[in-house]
Amino acid sequence: MILIGLGSNLASARYGPPREILSAALAALEAEGIRICARSAWYRSAPIPRLSQPWFVNAVASLDTKFDASGLLAMMLALEQRFGRVRGEPNAARVLDLDLLDYGGLVTDIPSLVLPHPRLHQRRFVLAPLAEIAPEWRHPLLARTAGELLAELADQPLERLAC
Fold it and tell me: In this structure, which of 14, 18, 57, 150 has its CB flanked by the most CB atoms within 10 Å?
């Protein structure tokens, strides 16, 4: 199972508000030959760490692709840039954030690719949508399901949005 996280908390002149940006990003992934197998509902979450910036819209999707993990990550980073993401200060507001969360249970820790995503087990905005689309998924290092990990993060604000 290949899982990605999607997030946005800035509007784009070309793509519109965050929810539309994320929908356009999913369409762009499909245009690259990636099949979206499932997508969670949209969620609204506070920035972490808490900063004075707009709340995020987030989702998790499962994919089927012929890209290997490094190729998929490179394509996702290029897509972020194409959508107008400018990397600078850590945790800054952003038009599009695409994270490779898990690639079939692969565990790697090299500068260009860390899997599973190093903070996914600490983020309610990742675990809630992940548990929605893949309740059987287990963290490759912690051997716990998304639901088990999610139970520890009830203090992080999160709102499921209507479709």
Answer: 18
